[in-house]
C-alpha cells in the first residue's frame, strides 16, 4: 500500500491490485456470521426485519467465500436499495459492486460502482475498485476474444473436414453406382 496526502489532514491510502484482492477476499469469522445470521433470522421469523439488521447481515455475507452467501448478499442489498434511506442506498450500491466483483460479474459490478460514483465522485476506494473491475473486464474481454477466435478456427476446420467427408462420400457413392 502506498499513501499520499491530499491536504494537511487527509491521507488517502492507494491500494495495489494485491491489496484489493486481499480486501475482496477477506472472510468474516464464524462467530460473527452466526451472530448476524441469528439476528436476521429471528427478525424474519417475527415478520419484520429492521433495515440495520438486514444491512449488517448482508455486509457479513459479503465477506463470505461461499457463492450462495454472495448471491443472498446481492439480493439483500438490492432490497435495501429499494427500501432504504439515501445513505443506505448509496452504501448498498458500493457493497453491490463488491459482491458482484467477488462473483466475477464485472459488468454488473461496474454498473454499481459507477452509480455509486455518480453520487460520491471523490470516493477513492470506489475509484480503485472501478479500476480493478475494468482491468478484469479487459482481461476477460481479451480472453473472450481469444476463445471466440479459437472457436472460429475450430469451427472452420470442422466445416472443412465435414465438407471433405461429404464430398468424399458423394464421390464414393457416384463411383459405386457406375459399376
From TrEMBL:
Alphabetical keyword list: Membrane, Transmembrane, Transmembrane helix
Gene Ontology biological process terms in this record: autophagy of mitochondrion; mitochondrial fission; mitochondrial fragmentation involved in apoptotic process; peroxisome fission
InterPro entries recorded: Fis1 (IPR016543), Fis1_cytosol (IPR033745), Fis1_TPR_C (IPR028061), TPR-like_helical_dom_sf (IPR011990)
TM region positions: 145-175
Organism, as annotated: Larinioides sclopetarius
Pfam families found in the cross-reference section: Fis1_TPR_C
Entry keyword Chloroplast: no
Domain of life, source organism: Eukaryota
Name listed for the protein in its UniProt record: Mitochondrial fission 1 protein
GO-annotated cellular components: mitochondrial outer membrane; peroxisomal membrane
CDD domains reported for this sequence: Fis1 (cd12212)
Amino acid at each position: 500500500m502506498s499513501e499520499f496526502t491530499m491536504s494537511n489532514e487527509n491521507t488517502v491510502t492507494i491500494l495495489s491490485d494485491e491489496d484489493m484482492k486481499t480486501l475482496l477476499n477477506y472472510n468474516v469469522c464464524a462467530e460473527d456470521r452466526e451472530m448476524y445470521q441469528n439476528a436476521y433470522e429471528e427478525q424474519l421469523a417475527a415478520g419484520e426485519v429492521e433495515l440495520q439488521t438486514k444491512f449488517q447481515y448482508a455486509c457479513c455475507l459479503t465477506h463470505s467465500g461461499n457463492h450462495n452467501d454472495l448471491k443472498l448478499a446481492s439480493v439483500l442489498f438490492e432490497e435495501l436499495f429499494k427500501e432504504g434511506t439515501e445513505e443506505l442506498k448509496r452504501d448498498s450500491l458500493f457493497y453491490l459492486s463488491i459482491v458482484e466483483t467477488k462473483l466475477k460479474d464485472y459488468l454488473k459490478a461496474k454498473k454499481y460502482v459507477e452509480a455509486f460514483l455518480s453520487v460520491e465522485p471523490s470516493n477513492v476506494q470506489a475509484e480503485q475498485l472501478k479500476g480493478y473491475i475494468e482491468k478484469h473486464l479487459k482481461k476477460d474481454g481479451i480472453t473472450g476474444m481469444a476463445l471466440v477466435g479459437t472457436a472460429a478456427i475450430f469451427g472452420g476446420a470442422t466445416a472443412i473436414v465435414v465438407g471433405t467427408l461429404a464430398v468424399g462420400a458423394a464421390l464414393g457413392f457416384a463411383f459405386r453406382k457406375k459399376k
